[in-house]
Amino acid sequence: MEGFNVITKRPFTVGAVLLILILLAIMPFYAKPYPVISLTNILMYIILTVSWVIFSGPTHYISLASAAFFGVGIYTSALLGKILPLPLIVVAGGFASFILALFIGLLTLRLRGMYFIIFTFSISELIRHFLLWWETNVEGTVGRWVVMVSHNTVYYIILIIFVMTMLIAYLMRQSRFGLALRCIGEQEEAAIHIGINATIVKSLTFAISATFMGASGAIMATRWTYIDPRIAFDPHLSFMPVLMAIFGGTVHFYGPLFGAAIFAYLEEILTTKFPYYYMLFFGAILIVVILFLPHGLFGLIQKRWKGGSE
Amino acid sequence: MKSTFLDSQQTPSFKKKRIFVFEAILNIVIAGLIMGGIYALIAVGLSLQYGVGRVLNISHGEFIMLGAFATWSLYTLLGVSPLLSLIICGPFLFLLGFLIHRTLFQYLRDKSESMGAFADSSLLASFGLLFIIQNIALLIWKADLRGYSYLNTPVSIFGAIFTANRIVALLFAVTISLAFYLFLTHTRMGKAIRASAEDPMTAQVMGVNIHRMLAICFGLGALMAGFAGPLISMMYEIQPTMGIEYTIIAIIVVVLGGLGSITGSLIGGFSLGLVGSIVTYFNPGLSLIAYYVIFILLLLIRPTGILGK
Amino acid sequence: MKHQKLLIYLTLSLILIIFLMADHSQAKDKIRIGNPIALSGINAPGAMMTQIRSYDMWVEDVNARGGIYVKDLGKKLPVEIIRYDDKSDIGTTVKLFEKLVLDEKVDFIFPPWGTASHFAIAPLTTKYKTPVLGPTCSSLKLKEMAHTIPYMFITLNQPWDHGGVIVDLCLEVGVKKAAVIHHTDLHGIEMATSIVPMLVGKGVDVLLYKSFPAGVKDLSPLLKEIKPLGVDALIASAYPPENFLMVEQMMTIGLNPKLFFSSVGIAYPSFRDKFGATAVEGILGTGCWNPKVSPAAKEWFDRYTKRWKVEPDRWGTAQSYATGQILEKAIEIAGTLEPTKVRDVIARETFDTILGRIKFENQFAKGWPGHVGQWQKGEFMVVDKATRQAAPVYPKPEWPKK
């Protein structure tokens, strides 16, 4: 019933969202090919960031295992690429990540704060090194190939994953589940006291957030076509969602979305316009943004608005 | 398709075997201390920045890289000994760290309304620093792999053979660690630092100028990087992207040793070095896996690290 | 709330529209070559050493001559490289390749650095019909793959080239016992898996066959394990800095096999200069090209050294320059910039380059001066049986005393 209320109370917002979705959906027909590819990449970063925020946002448990979930999706694609049709592979990738995240979630019950952060990072690295060892010593080779898929197909699948991620993120945030998560984030002991099963809530949410990462990994593998453990589990994919979320600001629902979009787009423009200086500019922009907008790009807007209305 | 070590004709006599075992242990221990010494230095550095200042300085490794490259330049262009560079790079990076904290992180800290918000903003800021420092290094030194030969002569310690530069690095790392430990436990400043790490509020009440303390600690963290960089450059080839690898190790050691405990970082560093050395001795391919497995197991058993609260 | 959201949606749509509309068409007044390559990240040193400087020098040389003559357009066109940093990240490499081809509409592509990167762009060369000459791609898998990627030409010599030669060398000098070690990267694994069966098949005792992680910081335990075995040959397939570390530690512990071969990096002048010409005397590595292979090679060597203040390496640097020469000749012969026609010319003609007379057989370059080199008196000499410039030095001299 909440969903219905949203539509009737804010018809303008819903209409605008639908318009944008339609524009995005028909983009391959009116846009040149490269912008579609670029947008695919940006959507991938948005999916990673928004799914990361599903768990880490409300609970403040900063997970650095995103690379593991994305990588699992990539490997699912590499291993099952010749056996299953593409949609099933994407689902399988999501499912594999779901299971892995559930396992990790249950494992890390007692860890908090920095310990949780570094633990998740270590799990990701362990998987990477273990897979490298396995591929080297047991399989005798290190790289794997993934069948290439047309970039429009990749775009549509990513678009679908994107829509689902946003939908689930929004629903969770509005639901009682989301409330439980925020309670756990504020005061975990109290939350347990009032009857919230923190273990199940945390693990399940963690697993849900990982699903979309895995699914997007599975489809992006078809763009990269050659993968090995170093490429698939690149730690920078663990850091990026965190940075993009902070950059965009986690106060609002759409903060991470636009944070990721702008961050990724900025990176693309800077690397191509200033190949030898872009890190300098990029780093400077990050610092300037956080100095003047400590709540991220979209954290300030709320403050300003609040000030104006009162 | 893996074959195993084929033990050929010789069967060592009993005495030979005992010497062999002793030598093996000596080799493992010294190699472990060499690596561990570096780990301890960089971990203590990060621990100071995080433990006291609550800044997870992702650009820590870049300071190490700067120290390494500055040493390389000084040696290859001016013939300055890397050991002398320790005294140059250390203080210079201390100053850099102090100033960066005083300007950037202090400002963020004042503006943040909670520690959580500060954690986020300082993380983003230190990431920005990482990018800036790396780009500057690439512009100055280009992307090539660099190295030099210094004190390359073999040195024998009861049969265990190492290059002199590694033994020197070990001695310096151990000395600096020890000196710093004594500084922490026996001087007023040291005690003030430890107090600030454990409980900044009380420390402030007790008269510690907390703002200056934070900047000094951040600077000290950079100082450690400034010591580690030259030592590393003596032993290995360096490139501008070397930083992140050391940052990650530092973070792991800090957590391993227990957050908030600088001594823990010291112990953690040497321990990890030894563990790595032991595993490398038996199967080098598994050494990185071993690091992570041990770390994960330790956290599962003892969720606050070796000496953490 | 409404206004704020409206503003955001409008801004976003505006951005969307702007970057869709970007147009890059211009009058044909130069030949544009895209080069997505590592300027930062772990591949950057290799890229700089082997490709970037060669490509840039080729552009300077071509433009000094007025450009490349394109018969179709009836004039000489200067050349320009559009280079983007792929940050040593495959995903970025792929995206930049497509940006250069689709958005910037470049005429040709100079490839990135590294086998993995070449694999990643290979399907794109077929999809967009872009001929690419690959100087840093080496893998056993290429043999079966080649016919599926007809626009990809591999100029680098391959594991079977080096492997065959080094095994023959071992047999020629009478190696009876060997140790083989390699790093856990595709290159290391493939080279070792080619060489070991060949050695064993020809009656050489492989007493140790182990791997170590890429980027290892201490090889002395492994080397100390090898020392008592008394092998004649140590074959180590690795990259710098691993083999640099290896040599340093071999000197320290006094491991001095009569034959020492390591693959990538031995041919770098920095390898020779780090230890000194006397110390590296007799060390074998993958290669091989040097200024002595022809007068043209010497002339280029001197010009390169003067231009960049560093020597080119004795393996891939000259080869990358040669890929530029091949592209230039192919455009001239084809008379057009049309990629498929240029591709066909590359496939069938023979080209005179500073590397040698190069012809592609099934997309692999033939005509290398040699596949294995050995440092002799400060120069990396070709010691292949078939094409040697000098007889192999065996046994390798003792490490110099400190």
Describe the protein's architecture and organization.
The complex is a heterotrimer of chains A (310), B (309) and C (402). With 310 residues, chain A is mainly alpha-helical. Helices cover 80% and strands 1% of the residues of chain A. A two-stranded antiparallel sheet of chain A has the order 1-2. Mean pLDDT of chain A is 88; it is low at 302-310. Chain B has 309 residues and is mainly alpha-helical. Chain B has one domain (25-243). Chain C has helices at residues 2-21, 44-64, 90-103, 115-127, 141-145, 159-173, 186-201, 220-226, 242-253, 269-275, 277-280, 295-308, 317-334, 339-348, and strands at 31-37, 68-70, 75-77, 79-85, 108-109, 132-134, 152-154, 177-183, 205-212, 233-237, 259-262, 284-286, 350-352, 357-361, 364-366, 372-376, 379-382. In chain C, the strands form five sheets. In chain C, strands 9-8-10-11-12-16-17 form a seven-stranded mixed β-sheet, covered by helices on one side. A three-stranded parallel β-sheet of chain C has the order 4-1-5, with helices on both faces. A three-stranded antiparallel β-sheet of chain C has the order 13-14-15. The N and C termini of chain C lie far apart (77 Å). The chains are: A mainly alpha (310), B mainly alpha (309), C alpha/beta (402). Chains A and C meet through helix 2, helix 4, helix 7, helix 11 and strand 2 of A and helix 1, strand 4, helix 3, helix 4 and helix 7 of C.
List the helices and strands and how they pair.
The complex is a heterotrimer of chains A (310), B (309) and C (402).
Chain A: H1 2-9, H2 11-25, H3 27-30, H4 33-59, H5 66-80, H6 86-107, H7 113-139, E1 144-145, H8 151-174, H9 176-186, H10 188-193, H11 198-224, E2 226-227, H12 229-232, H13 236-248, H14 255-273, H15 278-292, H16 299-309
Antiparallel strand pairs in A: 1-2
Chain B: H1 14-52, H2 60-78, H3 82-111, H4 115-141, E1 154-157, E2 160-163, H5 164-186, H6 188-198, H7 200-205, H8 210-235, H9 243-257, H10 262-282, H11 287-301
Antiparallel strand pairs in B: 1-2
Helix pairs in contact in B: 1-5, 1-8, 1-9, 1-10, 2-3, 2-4, 2-8, 2-9, 3-4, 3-8, 5-6, 5-8, 9-10, 10-11
Chain C: H1 2-21, E1 31-37, H2 44-64, E2 68-70, E3 75-77, E4 79-85, H3 90-103, E5 108-109, H4 115-127, E6 132-134, H5 141-145, E7 152-154, H6 159-173, E8 177-183, H7 186-201, E9 205-212, H8 220-226, E10 233-237, H9 242-253, E11 259-262, H10 269-275, H11 277-280, E12 284-286, H12 295-308, H13 317-334, H14 339-348, E13 350-352, E14 357-361, E15 364-366, E16 372-376, E17 379-382
Parallel strand pairs in C: 1-4, 1-5, 6-7, 8-9, 8-10, 10-11, 11-12
Antiparallel strand pairs in C: 2-3, 12-16, 13-14, 14-15, 16-17
Helix pairs in contact in C: 2-13, 3-4, 6-7, 13-14
